[in-house]
Design a protein that fits this description.
Blueprint (H helix, E strand, L loop, with lengths): L11 E5 L3 H12 L3 E6 L31 H4 L16 H14 L6 E3 L2 E7 L3 H4 L2 E6 L5 E6 L1 E4 L6 E2 L15 E4 L13 E5 L3 H11 L4 E5 L6 E2 L9 H5 L2 H9 L2 H15 L19 E2 L3 H6 L3 E4 L2 E5 L2 E4 L4 E2 L4 E4 L3 E2 L33 E3 L4 E2 L3 H16 L8 H15 L6 H4 L2 E2 L1 H12 L5 H7 L1 H9 L18 H6 L1 H6 L12 H29 L1
Parallel strand pairs: 1-2, 1-7, 2-3, 7-20, 9-18, 10-11, 10-18, 11-14, 12-13, 21-22
Antiparallel strand pairs: 4-5, 5-6, 8-19, 15-16, 16-17
């Protein structure tokens, strides 16, 4: 057992998990003079993004072909841009490379205990005074050990408990084929030449259905509510999130009526592909829930390789009956893309606010019921933007609170904020547990950044450094903005902002394109201009000759 810490020693903080949230939490602890000890149950860093051939209980699991939906400039850590030669949307192996570069650059690996599982986290008897925790761990050899920590950062992920609502589908037990959750799906090989029904149209459902449609005899995508679908690439072939997630656009959206914004956006997406015609039309408005990001889904529907279907009504052996009365026979497999629940069995049950294991958290980080704010849950959010920058800001705030540099408001105020946030999301997400996870990307980042003292002052930037100020307000809300000033200031932040579009272009500059000569350019401009004048004169003069 580790000795109880005295005031002269650095505070020791347990970090549970070495995924994207855990790695930045270790670094944030070091930045604030804390001593991190990270416990990772697997044999490697990366968490969710570490691909394994077989899923493991209580751990995240991904399929081999997964590619992130957020671009590298928007999802990277705020003081460590991804290498400029990395593609704009990385696959799981590339993001694992990035994590290793990050861990090596900041010397994080020496603080991680691999193949060590946390069994329990409990308050010490003198918690009201010390704020300390007893953490029980089990190592790879089965040895149990009890540690004392001044703080705990939970970075264990929330895609670990697949939801399999089998009772919602009468007769599913009569299906002779296989039934799995997307958590178990790895690649399309087992489904070659088969007829498969994919249930659920979230990002995973869309990805898996598209991949299967290239291998299966026929793929059916069943959805109860439909979805708005958009690709990763927008105007001029640029990354969706870098164009859409700007402070200027957020302000513009705040000023306009929500009904008008829904109309504009829905019209825009329907011009790309008519959602009603393609069988995608959802029951909700576009701003009410997250869109599905998929580059290939409409194309696969157009080719007939992927068939949209309504909700499954029942199974009759290998026959599937849908809500509209249509029937598909000889179904070989069903893949449930029906989401995830979360649970942290090692935490005290007193932190859960209901039988469903919901965690009541201030700003989705701190349990307000604790007498001392020395435990934080990181990354337990759902947002329309990248989670990594949000988790990093959470870690920066949480470590400062544990270090005693920042303070939380009274419990009563935190409870009111939690209730207000949940109430605002209930219309779009009727389940309170799910509603509590939702955050608006830029407002949430700014709210946490203000607590840390690193929120960019737009007016000051526009006056003192217009080149950066203009990009911060009108350009993408990239993570570097939160390193321009305040605690954790990074001297490279300004340059990172000024060169972010260069890093977007770099991986695509793989073929030299000759620039047109100035003579040729001016010749064609002059020719086109002269032609325009001639046509204009003809339009004016000809009517006179026709009368």
């Amino acid at each position: 057992m580790f000795p109880v810490q005295t005031h002269s020693m650095a505070k020791r903080v347990a970090v549970i998990g070495a995924g994207s949230s855990g790695l930045t939490s270790i670094k944030c602890c070091l930045d604030e003079g804390l001593e991190p000890v990270c416990f990772e149950s697997s044999d490697d860093i990366g968490g969710l993004w570490k691909f394994k051939e077989q899923p493991e209980a209580d751990r995240c699991s991904i399929y081999r072909s997964v590619i992130v939906n957020t671009s590298k400039e928007m999802m990277c850590y705020s003081d460590f841009p991804m290498p400029d030669h990395f593609p704009n949307f990385v696959n799981n192996s590339t993001i694992m490379q990035y994590f290793r570069l990050y861990a090596e650059h900041f010397s994080l690996l020496k603080h991680i205990h691999f193949q060590t599982t946390v069994r329990s986290v409990r308050q010490r008897p003198d918690f009201s005074n010390s704020g300390q925790w007893e953490v029980v761990t089990v190592d790879r050899d089965g040895r149990e050990e009890t540690h004392v920590f001044d703080g705990v950062l939970v970075c264990a992920g929330h895609f670990t408990q697949p939801i399999k609502p089998l009772s919602d589908f009468p007769g599913i037990d009569t299906l002779p084929g296989t039934i799995i959750h997307s958590w178990e799906y790895k690649n399309p090989d087992p489904y070659l030449g088969k007829r498969v029904v994919v249930v659920g149209i979230g990002n995973s459902g869309g990805d898996i259905a598209v991949e299967l449609s290239r291998a299966c005899e026929k793929t059916f995508l069943s959805t109860r509510k439909g979805a708005w679908v958009i690709g990763r690439v927008v105007d001029r072939g640029l990354p969706l999130d870098m164009i859409m997630m700007t402070r200027a656009r957020d302000l513009f959206y705040w000023l306009l009526p929500r009904a008008l914004l829904n109309l504009i956006w829905e019209r825009s997406l329907n011009q790309r592909h008519d959602h009603k015609l393609y069988g995608l039309q959802p029951v909700h408005r576009i701003l009410d829930q997250r869109v599905v990001i998929n580059d290939d889904l409409p194309g696969r529907i157009l080719l007939g390789e992927l068939v949209m279907k309504p909700n499954v009504q029942r199974f009759q052996g290998s026959t599937v009956v849908f809500d509209d009365g249509t029937v598909e026979e000889k179904i070989d497999a069903v893949i449930l893309c029906t989401g995830y629940d979360y649970r942290f069995p090692f935490l005290p049950t007193s932190l859960s606010s209901g039988s469903d294991g919901d965690l009541k958290l201030y700003r989705r980080i701190f349990p307000p019921s604790l007498e001392r704010p020395t435990l934080a849950i990181l990354g337990l959010i759902q947002t329309k933007g990248p989670i990594m920058p949000a988790a990093e800001l959470q870690a920066r705030w949480a470590t400062r609170v544990i270090a005693g540099l920042n303070h939380l408001p009274p419990t009563e105020n935190m409870d009111k904020t939690i209730e207000k946030d949940v109430r605002a999301n209930l219309k779009s997400y009727p389940c309170p547990k799910l509603a509590a996870l939702q955050v608006d990307h830029i407002p949430y980042l700014d709210a946490i950044a203000k607590e840390v003292g690193v929120c960019p002052n737009i007016a000051w930037l526009l006056l003192r450094d217009p080149a950066v100020g203009f990009r911060v307000f009108f350009g993408p809300c990239s993570p570097y903005q939160f390193r321009l000033n305040g605690p954790g200031h990074w001297s490279g932040a300004r340059q990172a902002i000024l060169t972010q579009w260069d890093r977007v272009a770099k991986p695509m500059k793989t073929r030299p394109i000759p620039e047109p000569s100035s003579f040729s350019l001016f010749f064609w401009l002059g020719l086109s201009g002269g032609a325009a004048v001639i046509f204009a004169l003809m339009a004016i003069v000809l009517p006179y000759f026709q009368t």
